[in-house]
Design brief:
elongated, mainly alpha, 8 helices, 184 residues
C-alpha cells in the first residue's frame, strides 16, 4: 500500500534529451575561415587591457626569449621577463611563437653566424665533423657562440618588435575608437 502511494506521488521530471555523440561534419564550411579568425585576433588585440606600451613590452619580451635555443623554456623565460618590465604576459607568451619548428634552423643558424662574427671565431669551419672527440671538445665554444649570437639578435629583435608592436597597437586602437565615435 505504501509503495503504491509513494510511486503515485513521485514527481514527474521531463525527459532529458540524451547527448548526441555522433561525429559532426568537419567540412570546410563548418570551420571558421581564416579571415574570421584574423578578425577575432584583431578584436582581442584592440580590446586588450593595459596601455599600448605595456602590451608592446610584453610582446618584445616574448620575441627576445624566442631567439634563444632553450626549447620549452622560451615561454617561461618570456613571461618571467615580462614581470620586471611590466609587460603584458599574454603577449609575452605569444611573442615566443616567433621560433617554432619551421623557423628553428634559420633562426639559430643566423644566431650562430652573428655570434661567430661578434666573437671573431671563424676557425670553427676547419673542424672534422666525423671526429666525435673534436666536436665534443668544441661543444662549450659552439654553445658560447650561439648564446652570444642569440643575445645580440634577441636584443635587436626585441627593440624592433617593441616599436613595431607599439605602432600597430596604436593604429588598431585609433581606428577602433574612431569607428565607435562614428556609430555614436
Amino acid at each position: 500500500m505504501f509503495r503504491s502511494l509513494l510511486q503515485s506521488n513521485r514527481p514527474h521530471f521531463p525527459s532529458v534529451a540524451k547527448p548526441d555523440f555522433r561525429r559532426r561534419s568537419t567540412s570546410r564550411s563548418s570551420r571558421p575561415s581564416f579571415r574570421r579568425r584574423l578578425k577575432y585576433f584583431y578584436w582581442r588585440l584592440v580590446r586588450m587591457q593595459g596601455t599600448s606600451e605595456a602590451i608592446a613590452r610584453g610582446f618584445a619580451c616574448g620575441v627576445f626569449a624566442g631567439m634563444f635555443p632553450l626549447f620549452g623554456l622560451q615561454t617561461i623565460i618570456g613571461v618571467l621577463l615580462a614581470v620586471p618590465f611590466r609587460g603584458n604576459k599574454i603577449l609575452a607568451l605569444t611573442g615566443t611563437w616567433i621560433s617554432n619548428p619551421l623557423t628553428y634552423v634559420p633562426i639559430y643558424t643566423f644566431n650562430f653566424h652573428v655570434g661567430q662574427w661578434l666573437l671573431n671565431k671563424h676557425d670553427l669551419m676547419k673542424i672534422n665533423f666525423y671526429s666525435w672527440g673534436q666536436i665534443k671538445g668544441l661543444g662549450a665554444e659552439i654553445g658560447l657562440i650561439l648564446l652570444v649570437g642569440s643575445l645580440a639578435v634577441g636584443l635587436v629583435s626585441a627593440v624592433f618588435s617593441y616599436f613595431l608592436g607599439l605602432r600597430v597597437i596604436n593604429r588598431f586602437r585609433a581606428a577602433y575608437y574612431l569607428q565607435r565615435r562614428r556609430r555614436d
